[in-house]
Amino acid sequence: MGRHCWRRLVLVAACLSAALLLLGAATRSLLLESENRVLGSGWLGGKRRSPLKMLYDLDQGPSSALAEVHRQRRSLLHRACSRHTRRQRLLQPEDLRHVLVDDVHGLLYCYVPKVACTNWKRVLLALRSPGGLDPQAIPAHEAHAPGRLPSLADFSPTEINRRLRDYLAFLFVREPFERLASAYRNKFARPYSAAFQRHYGTRIVRRLRPRPHPDALARGHDVRFAEFLAYLLDPRTRRDEPFNEHWERAHALCHPCRLRYDIVGKFETLAEDAAFVLGLVGTAGLHFPAPPPLTKAVTTHDQAVRLFQDISPFYQRRLFDLYKMDFLLFNYSTPSYLQLH
Predict the structure, then answer these.
(1) Among 17, 60, 284, 322, which residue's beta carbon has the most beta carbons within 10 A?
(2) DSSP secondary structure string for all residues of 254-293
(3) What's the DSSP call for residue 189?
(4) Tens digit of pLDDT for each residue in 327-339?
(5) Cβ neighbours, 10 Å, residue 20
(6) Sequence-ordered list of residues with C-beta below 8 angstroms from that of 219, at least 6 positions apart, any chain
(7) CB atoms inside a 10 Å sphere around CB 59
């Protein structure tokens, strides 16, 4: 079948060593409706259509309300990328480390910490299990164990290009400051372990607290939200090392203006969006793990309001500028509790 428009492919610049390989930034178009991609049914064993073909068919026929929501999100992301991005560097393979691969079902999932990524990793592991494993039965530490799920960065340029072209790519995002509040609560205020306090908390206390108590210097257990934000805004932080993935910007983890994403799911509509993705995969009986009775989206909004009320407008503005691209690309409004003017 003929194609009605050209698809931009990922450009690969090979250097002398495979370790220096650069992956080109331009990939498939963000808009499925502007393409005529028809994948052969045999690429998944001839048994069923791929998730990407399922989505394409939905876009071409009478669209459901949810399918229309995702079509609009793709369109908004495409327009925001065109409006707010200029010259961009070539992607390196390591930039694709957060993109996980399911070759059996034809899926690419870019995980963003603090956006239900533990449960999405559980679902991907359950999909790989021939016995129909319940995702909720998979312990969190197993879901996050290195090597359990292949990353797009692990493949050759040719294999990377093929998967980017043929697989359904999706990511889930969250209102940036609520995600930041969740990261602070989970890693510093009420941590599951003391690892982040020891690694980052002691560093924050040492750098930003004028006369720290020896116990705080040793444990980093009492970092205040204002100190955490000051650490993020300190130019030395990113100069010394990249942001930790739990507070790195979603666009910096998933590169949505250089990689095409078919589904932009949101934490605020997690249940509906997750069901939509799994419906495209065609996994009868597999359900996304249900959230607790009081959803994190509600509690972290209230927490963000409380945390930011003690932050000066000057620092609110600086922090908003730091995370501004996530607000713009994923169509989040400026939080009403900020005092930016």
Answers:
(1) 322
(2) H-TTTS--SEEEEGGGHHHHHHHHHHHHT-TT--PPPPPS
(3) I
(4) 999 999 999 999 9
(5) 11
(6) 194, 197, 198, 201, 202
(7) 19
> Quick check: helix, strand or coil at residue 93?
helix
pTM score of the predicted model: 0.85
Contact 232, 322 (CB under 8 A): yes
287-307 residue pLDDT tens: 999 876 655 555 778 989 999
Mean pLDDT of successive 10-residue stretches along the chain, which has 341 residues:
35 31 37 33 54 92 87 96 85 93 97 97 92 87 94 96 97 97 94 94 96 95 97 95 96 96 97 96 88 62 92 96 97 94 69
Pair type for strands 263-266 and 99-102? unpaired
Token representation of residue 315: 């620092």
Q: How far is it, in rounded angstroms, from Cα 219 to Cα 244?
A: 19
Backbone angles phi, psi at 237, to 5 degrees: -60, -55
153 to 19, 81, 95, 199, 309: CA distances (angstroms): 11, 23, 7, 27, 41
Contact (Cβ atoms closer than 8 angstroms) between residue 326 and residue 250? yes
Q: Name the token pair of 36.
A: 């005529």
CA distances from 273 to 74, 139, 187, 263, 288 (A): 14, 23, 27, 9, 10
Instruction: Supply 211's token pair.
Output: 């006369």
